[in-house]
């Protein structure tokens, strides 16, 4: 038996169509909630935001947690940006194989509370510039689609968005804000989650492991299969981010910048066991791909305890978790409810 995959992007549909559609595609497109906007609620009982120390996020079952419906949502839409090798969702269209979302349940969680969310897709391994170009087009097109279908979803005036970016997606978004300066919309805030703002020692390790000759061969093979730009790996090294990217890409004073880091102790079966050990020796606490220190940018909102690089986007279905070899109190859904509430509190 053979399976065929199709790529579909950004059709203009009514919200009723969006609610019932099930596409058979490799890269899918997620749309927006039609739920009415909830009233802003009081923020009493909010778990404290601590930018100066490590913050342990309490689980859904702990008694001092607010009810999930008490968390507010920001006025402006939320854009979710994936990292290296990312996607919106993967699907074969076969019921026995459920689709895999990059942001596992995050957009649905926020939409159920009245938020407008946009999932984006950029080239998986391209340079930051090309990924940022695609991100700009993604956001602009999706804003246009929402405005055509439901213009009341945007406040009056030029559209504004709050970007939440995971891993390399944070570098894409920083480049978008600083260098592309989109005219179709403004960025109100950028929150990066486990983004290697100062690179990753594991990227250095892999580049050194492959060596110059190996890299040249890899690039040549990639070109033959249609991947003309695969500079992402090199641009995640510490040398490139600190000596080139951070020098050229400056923060926009009109944009609010927030960030999180994460750290955990891997079990032998955790997929990040190897990179975690490499990074631990060079920079200390890390999530298996990015150190806590490298993840800090703008206003640091805290370190996510016992969370690895995939836990933070709500991926649970991995061997060490399924076998209960690693238990964690970290609750990704609570993180995004808190973040949405934070953005709302800041008037974003």
From TrEMBL:
Q: Tell me, what does this protein do in biology?
A: Involved in inositol deacylation of GPI-anchored proteins which plays important roles in the quality control and ER-associated degradation of GPI-anchored proteins.
Q: What class of enzyme is it?
A: hydrolase
Q: Where is the sequence biased in composition, kind Basic and acidic residues?
A: 53-69
Which GO terms fall under molecular function for this chain's record?
Answer: hydrolase activity, acting on ester bonds
Biological process annotations from GO: protein transport
Please report the stretch or stretches of sequence annotated as the GPI inositol-deacylase PGAP1-like alpha/beta domain: 141-202
EC numbers listed for it are 3.1.-.-
Q: Region (Disordered): which ranges?
A: 37-69
Annotated GO CC locations = endoplasmic reticulum membrane
Q: Where in the cell is it found?
A: Endoplasmic reticulum membrane
Tell me where on the tree of life, at the top rank, the source sits: Eukaryota
Instruction: Tell me which InterPro entries the record gives.
Output: AB_hydrolase_fold, PGAP1-ab_dom-like
Q: Which organism is it from?
A: Nadsonia fulvescens var. elongata DSM 6958
Give the protein's recorded name: GPI inositol-deacylase
């Amino acid at each position: 038996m053979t399976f065929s995959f199709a790529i579909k992007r950004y059709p203009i549909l009514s919200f009723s169509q969006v609610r019932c559609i099930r596409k058979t595609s490799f890269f899918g497109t997620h749309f927006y909630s039609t739920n009415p906007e909830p009233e802003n609620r009081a923020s009493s009982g909010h778990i404290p935001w601590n930018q100066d120390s490590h913050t342990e996020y309490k689980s859904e079952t702990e008694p001092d947690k607010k009810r999930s419906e008490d968390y507010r949502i920001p006025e402006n839409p939320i854009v979710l940006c994936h990292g290296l090798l990312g996607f919106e969702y993967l699907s074969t269209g076969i019921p026995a194989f459920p689709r895999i979302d990059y942001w596992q349940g995050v957009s649905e969680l926020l939409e159920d509370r009245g938020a407008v969310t946009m999932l984006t897709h950029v080239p998986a391994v391209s340079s930051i510039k090309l990924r940022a170009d695609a991100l700009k087009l993604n956001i602009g097109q999706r804003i246009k689609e929402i405005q055509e279908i439901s213009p009341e979803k945007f406040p009056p005036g030029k559209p504004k968005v709050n970007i939440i970016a995971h891993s390399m997606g944070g570098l894409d978004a920083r480049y978008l804000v600083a260098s592309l300066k989109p005219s179709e919309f403004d960025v109100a805030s950028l929150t990066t989650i486990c983004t290697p703002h100062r690179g990753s020692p594991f990227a250095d390790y892999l580049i050194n492991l492959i060596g110059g000759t190996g890299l040249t061969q890899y690039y040549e093979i990639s070109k033959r299969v249609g991947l003309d730009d695969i500079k992402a790996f090199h641009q995640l090294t510490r040398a490139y981010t600190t000596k080139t990217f951070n020098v050229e890409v400056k923060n926009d004073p009109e944009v609010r910048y927030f960030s999180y880091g994460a750290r955990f102790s891997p079990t032998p079966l955790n997929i990040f066991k190897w990179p975690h050990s490499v990074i631990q020796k060079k920079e200390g606490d890390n999530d298996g791909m990015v150190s806590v220190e490298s993840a800090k940018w703008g206003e640091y909102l805290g370190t996510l305890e016992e969370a690895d690089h995939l836990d933070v986007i709500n991926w649970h279905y991995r061997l060490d978790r399924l076998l209960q070899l690693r238990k964690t109190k970290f609750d990704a859904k609570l993180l995004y409810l808190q973040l949405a509430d934070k953005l709302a509190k800041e008037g974003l």
